[in-house]
Amino acid sequence: MINITFPDNSVKTFDAGVTPLEIARSLSPKLAKEVLASSVNEQEWDLSRPITEDATIKLYKWDDAEGKHAFWHSSAHLLAEALQELYPGVKFGIGPAIENGFYYDIDPGEHTLTAADFAKIEKKMLELARRKEDIVRADISKADALKMFGDRGEVYKCELISELEDGHITTYTQGAFTDLCRGPHLPNTDAIKAVKVTSLAGAYWRGDETRNQLVRVYGITFPKQKMLEEYLVMLEEAKKRDHRKLGKEMELFAFSQRVGAGLPLWLPKGAALRDRLEQFLRKIQRKYGYQQVITPHIGNKNLYVTSGHYAKYGKDSFQPIHTPEEGEEYLLKPMNCPHHCEIFRAAPRSYRDLPLRLAEFGTVYRYEQSGELHGLTRVRGFTQDDAHIFCAPDQIKDEFLKVMDIIFYIFKALKFENWEAQISLRDPAHKEKYIGSDENWHLAETAIIEACAEKGVNARTELGEAAFYGPKLDFMVKDALGRRWQLGTIQVDYNLPERFELEYTGADNAKHRPVMIHRAPFGSMERFVAVLLEHTAGKFPLWLAPDQVVVLPISEKFNDYAREVAVELDKYDVRAFVDDRNEKIGKKIRDNELRRIPYLVIVGEKEAQNGEVSVRKQGQGDQGSMKIANFAQQLTEEVNNLTNQ
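Above: the chain's sequence. Below: its structure in token form.
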């Protein structure tokens, strides 16, 4: 008999060899129908895999990320099984679950896949799912795995197997399809009731542009048809909100092949929007004692070798810049933090100087592969709202609380109301993977946990998810369509202070090593603007909108009065412009509503005579007529209410 401990710390006894699915069935027949995945002793575990010793267990359903992951990972295998039947000779790369669905990279050989094949693939996947094929895990030796996949000509799988350690290789089989995989998976295919193949893309094998280009087939599945239908409605809405589409319509940014792929050009309205976001954060940072710094766009290669960024980002960076000086090389900077370490080193530091908070809107560069570029969310040059706090170990908690306050203020001001947090701690069983003393790790982890408790943040805790240099706290927000984005992050770092030999003189007159906190509430200006565009559908809060008011004269006779209105509004710091095109007023209204201008004011003979404007609010229609000064005061109050929450 073995003891199984549940998340509520209750313990039940079972026969050795019991499976998580059998445990679920013993608890509730309903749970057994809904459970999709499990973990045993914090390790992912198949529902049909026996447990042979005392263990802790967690059971996951569809609403759990782990449940969706197992469901979509199994669906990736179902996709591959369907492709194998439909296109004999196809070779397989990798097929993981992703945040929404899954994909499989394939080498189609002589076959050509297009969107016209989607319906056929979906039909085959549903046909296979209805067979309720068991998904069977098997341990296999490296030699047998190489022979099995080699005999099938699976060159990509053989390459992966060659890099694996013997004794830790598993396969999963369903029907006539066997895949190299760590799992976990569903017990069988019966739970997969709705299928959609969503798109095709090109993907270089293992992300290497010098290797074969494979076809990446994307898909998504659900346990109910209704869920798929709701998802497809959401996808249509997402297309309308695509930041690339909105950015073009609202004249915010552009891309030029002459300038280079992944290098956005901020147009006047977009630059104004971005500047307001920067000023918004600068104002907050001043209240919290941050000092603004500016660092170069390039740095000596040795700077990034010292920091470790060259080893990490070297292959993803632009090629080194060689100067006329023999052996001298520079890089476009991939990170701002090494530069900030050198600012700390620029003068002797005392414990009285700490915490030292250095902030910069610093542009960094990474050579993302062309196939990975996507609008503003994946670019090659982006500006981080970076700050680095150099502090003593006993100051970490207080600094965490202050950074959390900043992040919460931003989320509230921009109406990101649905968010969750994750605390990432080191794995206590494998301390050798991390740097820093046990004492410092204890201080940092305790500070994060206590900071979350003080703020009432019910953060999820993940062991083993810390960076090698320290624990961290990440914030994921859900946008208006329910999509998750990581926006805020706070990270503790013992690594860079050690690498750069940073020191301060303590109250004991001895030298001490500071701890470094990285924080970026926005992440990057580019990605944040993209997320904000899609979250708001381009309807920015009034204080942030590039243009707050457009003045629409009903005919050319009133153009002069329209300009007077714009000038008067400018005196109240209201951003207004005149649309004096020779178009009918109905078209002007439609065009400017499409541009998401918050307020449209219409002026004609009555308004000119009375010194008034007829107000129309985006999404709410006519608001009546009012004096210009009263209208300007109303806008000022609205802005103040939005920014002083």
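The chain has a mean pLDDT of 92.
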